[in-house]
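User: Could you go from structure to sequence for me? I need the amino acid at each position, not a summary. Structure tokens:
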């Protein structure tokens, strides 16, 4: 894609904040194109197009990380190097999230129900499952293993499709944005009597609360998915480039194992925060 020519993996890792703006551009183009060409299926097509636009830069970043595994550096150094790629992924995810949320907030209601129809259905299903229960009543193990299933899918998609986990991450960004956008729209009446700077300040405050409500625990959860996606992508490229059982391949397997362990720890932390911390604030 033309936009991907503006930034390469090395540049992205040096200035990962650029991915935030690319994420906004990618999702905005995806939403507009999905409405123009595939309006009846816009909620899924926009995810596909967002992933398609970001595929080249993400795939090349994963290739760069796999190459670093071959340099013979220590595992501690490798993990530090991988953190640069994780910043690229996370900034892109945040760009997706902010863009989806803004589109949800400012699109007319009749377009919201079209563009986010699948995501709204997902939110309704989630609310139906937990209706009548406080979040504390949902067992920690249930939340953890549900998130573990998603993490496993991230690894599998990355292994099979290179950076296939981007679909899962983009979908999660859209679902979180839908939940946050629904919360924001439901509370807009509280600022309807405000004007000028006061209105803008209250609107920004409401927007921030809407995002934080789902990202206090969501940050650790998404970071776990991103690390798992990176691990799956590295092993996928390694299988293509190296003979199984070679010294380089064994080193890559060791590095991938470390990444997966870190992702599992973060996933468990996320579940604890979701059960015991987030409900105390919201």
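Assistant: Here is the amino acid at each position, in order:
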């Amino acid at each position: 894609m033309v936009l991907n020519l503006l930034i390469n993996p090395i540049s992205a890792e040096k200035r990962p904040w650029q991915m935030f703006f690319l994420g906004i551009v990618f999702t905005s183009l995806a939403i507009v194109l999905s409405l123009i060409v595939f309006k009846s299926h816009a909620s899924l097509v926009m995810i596909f197009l967002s992933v398609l636009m970001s595929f080249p830069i993400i795939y090349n970043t994963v290739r760069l990380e796999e190459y670093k595994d071959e340099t013979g550096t220590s595992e501690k150094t490798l993990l530090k190097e991988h953190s640069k790629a994780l910043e690229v992924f996370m900034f892109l995810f945040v760009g997706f999230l902010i863009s989806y949320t803004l589109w949800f907030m400012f699109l007319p209601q009749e377009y919201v129900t079209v563009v986010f129809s699948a995501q709204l259905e997902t939110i309704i299903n989630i609310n139906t499952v937990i209706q009548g229960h406080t979040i504390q009543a949902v067992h920690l193990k249930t939340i953890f293993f549900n998130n573990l299933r998603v993490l496993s899918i991230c690894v599998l998609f990355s292994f099979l499709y290179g950076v296939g986990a981007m679909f899962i991450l983009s979908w999660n960004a859209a679902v979180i944005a839908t939940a946050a956008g629904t919360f924001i729209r439901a509370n807009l009446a509280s600022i309807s009597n405000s004007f000028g700077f006061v209105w803008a300040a209250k609107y920004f405050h409401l927007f921030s609360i809407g995002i934080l409500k789902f990202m206090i625990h969501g940050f650790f959860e998404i970071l776990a998915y991103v690390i798992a996606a990176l691990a799956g992508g590295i092993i996928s490229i390694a299988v293509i480039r190296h003979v199984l059982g070679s010294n380089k391949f064994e080193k890559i397997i060791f590095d991938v194992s470390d990444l997966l362990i870190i992702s599992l720890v973060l996933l468990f932390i996320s579940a604890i925060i979701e059960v015991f911390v987030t409900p105390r604030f919201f």
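One structural detail worth keeping in mind: The chain has one domain: 2-281.
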